[in-house]
């Protein structure tokens, strides 16, 4: 950074416009300047941005462009992202950041970083007066004490000339009170911003609220979602939102937000309801009654429950506890008119108590925000520990489903947005290929996606090699993700296309390959690699002309190990996987036969398995397509990790997670490769250096200008025109062998001129040159429910089917008469079966 500081140009309120070349520009809105230093923390920065641009802190999202790249927006969401942004702009004086979020900044002291806490001035006695309204409201004097004192007396007197005047005065008083309390005079707590989610899982943000108790109005704390609850009240929304408030002296409460543990929170609910207490709506009363019942450990039934009145009795017949509350039009409040306190049921009502659905869903929502993958058993255990509620699995599971639907949207409704989503992808990423298939029963069947950046990158910078994989999406409808993945010049994954299908079968794979052919039109001879057990060879050779198909060495190795059966001789079972891999990588038939003979000497059944699994489709010595079996890792693992983060999301957010992961992958590789100085990618440069070391001291004889004889432990012939060496290592690997390098050293040729173009740093950059443009909006503006029900094009989720039986190995049951089947033991001394060399009694 220049002089240790970076000036951020903070823009918000405008819109992004995508140009023909894929770059984006930002038009409209406002801009503010803010300087940061290397010591600036992310939470502090986010708070400053929200404050400066008047945006809600929770909903604030921050994005920026990399220097010289106006195509891909990078998300700024944590300390690591902030450090990376500063590193990227270390040679710049300014950097543009783009903000989105809901309007309306609300100061929240407990959410502020420690730095901002230190800047707060010391609390001191203060007085604030609210001017009287037109209705004749008298002055209200508010005194705020120092931290050592209790909250000072707050005296007010109120006349009631009219209801409208009361509402106006109420708003003025509340605004004045909150404005004074922002100083947080009595708050001395410091929030640990480095605490982990596990450390803060029991903490809840609290907001100051005002309620009328029996002895006057007091300040209590209510949940942040109270406003959401109020929205469900259909009657007199405006009239009930603000009520005339008179604040009485009460030293038991503090002004401003506080943090409390769950135990203290429940303890505070015990005094949440008293006779004569007023609430702003029936919804607020129900919420308080639910918490009151949990705190006192009893269950109740609502006899009357509408917007005008609510009557509740104890859940046990004969217990006298009851409560009655109703709407008071003259005061525009919902008032507790009768509360008969004592219980005679002896706690029996608590045994049959069931929490209100809305309350339970809100509690579960808070826990899912902290840990999105909470299991029902974990949440049930937490509810029992924190609130004493003992719920069964089904109750908690239904609560999780409702909570996730509120947080993420409906699983079912998401399928209706797929046509719009495909149209949005093609609009924001011209040249991309999408295909959506809906069945005759209006149920979702298949969705294919291939972005233009992926298509062009594969065609221009990657070898003609594609790995076909299927990964379960782990959703409630059991969809499957089909993928076609290439390798970049550094042998990293390069996603080309993917599809979500309702089931994995021959029809879905055939359809996927047809869409892939339409998206990736190329004259090159492609090599496809897949699991042998899937049987995709006939579909590949039928759809793609001049294509080759090979079997994935990863799945072959796994199957080989699972099928190993004794007896084992010689070096034993442990040597077989290494020999199998060496046989697959051998470039000459003689080398393949040598390793398979070693396998045969150890286990004849393992040798038979190798011969039966068609070595011509996976062994280097016989395979005619592109070299691939040096890749022994699971290509599908990256997709599986991405899906794990989004397994609970509906289909469109889940696809969006995959798209964003690919977008970030491409941007990261593009950024990393921009700093490379060598001609080859790092992994290929390393392998070439190893061959250069081997080439030292080799004797080279000239046969012609293009044909050479190289002597080491054997004689090898090198033809530099055909790029061939008799050791057979040059062509399969794409890199010159040490015999060829010895020739180049003698003739003064550059070794890089004879390396595969796909391994050069230039081809790597070409592969990642294009960018995936983000969709400007994810949520589709849906109409009302009646319109959606009448819509003829409504898309239903796929029918839920059980996983394929072949993917679930059946347990073999044996009768007692069969006994236990034991592993056969082979003697390495006499080669006999049934004993080992220690117990061998055969005389040799």
Automatic annotation (TrEMBL):
UniProt keyword list: Metal-binding, Zinc, Zinc-finger
All copies of domain SWIM-type, residue ranges: 716-748
InterPro entries: MULE_transposase_dom (IPR018289), PB1_dom (IPR000270), Transposase_MuDR (IPR004332), Znf_PMZ (IPR006564), Znf_SWIM (IPR007527)
Disordered, as annotated region: 782-813
UniProt key word Glycoprotein: no
GO molecular function list: zinc ion binding
Annotated signal peptide: none
Domain of life: Eukaryota
Composition skew (Acidic residues), residue ranges: 784-794
The protein, known as: SWIM-type domain-containing protein
Organism (species): Gossypium hirsutum (Upland cotton)
């Amino acid at each position: 950074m220049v002089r240790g500081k970076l000036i951020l140009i903070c823009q918000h309120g405008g819109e992004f416009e995508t140009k023909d070349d894929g770059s984006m520009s930002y038009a409209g809105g406002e801009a503010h300047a803010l300087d940061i230093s290397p010591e600036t923390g992310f939470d502090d920065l986010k708070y400053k941005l929200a404050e400066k641009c008047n945006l809600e802190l929770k909903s604030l999202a921050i994005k920026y462009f990399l220097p010289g790249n106006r195509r891909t927006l990078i998300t700024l969401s944590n300390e690591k992202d902030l450090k990376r942004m500063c590193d990227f702009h270390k040679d710049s004086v300014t950097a543009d950041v783009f903000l989105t979020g809901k309007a309306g900044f609300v100061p929240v002291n407990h959410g502020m970083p420690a730095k901002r806490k230190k800047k707060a001035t010391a609390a001191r006695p203060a007085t604030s007066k609210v001017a009287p309204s037109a209705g004749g409201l008298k002055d209200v004097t508010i005194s705020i004490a120092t931290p050592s004192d209790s909250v000072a007396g707050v005296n007010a007197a109120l006349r009631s000339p009219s209801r409208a005047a009361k509402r106006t005065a109420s708003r003025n008083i509340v605004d004045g009170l909150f404005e004074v309390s922002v100083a947080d005079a009595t708050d001395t707590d410091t929030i640990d911003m480095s605490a982990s989610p596990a450390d803060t899982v029991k903490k809840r943000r609290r907001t100051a609220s005002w309620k009328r108790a029996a002895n006057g109005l007091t300040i209590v704390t209510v949940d942040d979602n109270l406003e959401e609850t109020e929205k469900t009240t259909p009657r007199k929304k405006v009239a009930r939102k603000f009520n005339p408030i008179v604040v009485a002296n009460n030293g038991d409460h503090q002004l401003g937000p506080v943090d409390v543990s769950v135990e203290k929170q429940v303890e505070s609910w015990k005094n949440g309801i008293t006779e004569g207490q007023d609430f702003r709506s029936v919804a607020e009363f129900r919420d308080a009654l639910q918490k009151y019942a949990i705190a006192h450990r009893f269950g109740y039934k609502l006899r009357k429950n509408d917007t005008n009145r609510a009557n509740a009795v104890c859940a046990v017949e004969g217990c006298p506890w009851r409560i009655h509350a109703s709407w008071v039009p003259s005061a525009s409040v919902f008032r507790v008119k009768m509360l008969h306190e004592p219980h005679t049921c002896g706690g029996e009502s608590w045994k049959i108590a069931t929490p209100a659905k809305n309350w339970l869903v809100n509690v579960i929502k808070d826990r899912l925000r902290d840990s999105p993958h909470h299991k029902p058993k974990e949440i049930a255990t937490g509810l029992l520990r924190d609130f004493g509620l003992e719920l069964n699995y089904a109750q908690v599971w239904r609560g999780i489903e409702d909570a996730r639907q509120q947080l993420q949207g409906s699983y079912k409704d998401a399928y209706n947005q797929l046509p719009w989503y495909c149209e949005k992808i093609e609009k924001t990423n011209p040249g991309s290929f999408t295909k959506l298939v809906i069945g005759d029963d209006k149920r979702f069947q298949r969705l294919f996606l291939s972005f233009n950046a992926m298509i062009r990158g594969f065609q221009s910078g990657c070898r003609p090699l594609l790995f076909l994989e299927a990964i379960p999406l782990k959703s409630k409808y059991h969809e499957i993700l089909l993928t076609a993945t290439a390798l970049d010049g550094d042998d990293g994954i390069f996603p080309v296309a993917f599809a979500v299908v309702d089931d994995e079968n021959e029809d879905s794979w055939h359809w996927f390959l047809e869409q892939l052919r339409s998206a990736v039109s190329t004259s090159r001879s492609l090599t496809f690699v897949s699991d042998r057990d899937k049987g995709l060879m006939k579909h590949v050779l039928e759809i793609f002309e001049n294509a080759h198909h090979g079997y994935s060495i990863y799945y072959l190795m796994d199957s080989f190990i699972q099928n190993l059966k004794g007896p084992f001789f010689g070096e034993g079972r442990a040597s077989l996987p290494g020999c199998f891999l060496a046989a697959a990588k051998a470039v000459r038939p003689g080398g393949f036969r040598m390793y398979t003979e070693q396998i045969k000497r150890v286990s004849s059944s393992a040798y038979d398995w190798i011969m039966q699994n068609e070595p011509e489709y996976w062994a280097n010595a016989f395979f005619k397509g592109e070299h691939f079996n040096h890749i022994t890792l699971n290509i599908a693992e990256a997709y599986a990790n991405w899906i794990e983060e989004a397994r609970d999301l509906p289909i469109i957010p889940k696809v969006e997670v995959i798209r964003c992961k690919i977008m970030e992958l491409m941007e990261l590789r593009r950024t990393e490769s921009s700093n490379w100085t060598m001609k080859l990618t790092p992994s290929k440069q390393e392998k070439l250096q190893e061959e250069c070391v081997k080439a030292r001291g080799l004797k080279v004889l000239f046969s012609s200008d293009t044909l050479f004889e190289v002597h080491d432990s054997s004689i090898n012939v090198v033809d530099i025109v055909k790029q061939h060496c008799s050791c057979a290592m040059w062509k399969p690997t794409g890199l010159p062998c040490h015999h060829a390098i010895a020739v180049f050293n003698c003739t003064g040729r550059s070794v890089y001129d004879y390396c595969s173009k796909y391994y050069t740093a230039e081809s790597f950059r070409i592969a990642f040159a294009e960018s995936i443009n983000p969709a400007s909006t994810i949520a589709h503006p849906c109409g009302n429910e009646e319109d959606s029900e009448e819509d003829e094009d409504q898309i239903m989720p796929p029918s839920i089917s059980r996983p394929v039986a072949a993917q679930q190995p059946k347990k073999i049951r044996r009768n007692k008469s069969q006994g236990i089947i034991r592993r056969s033991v082979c003697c390495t001394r006499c080669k006999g079966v049934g004993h080992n060399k220690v117990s061998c009694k055969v005389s040799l």
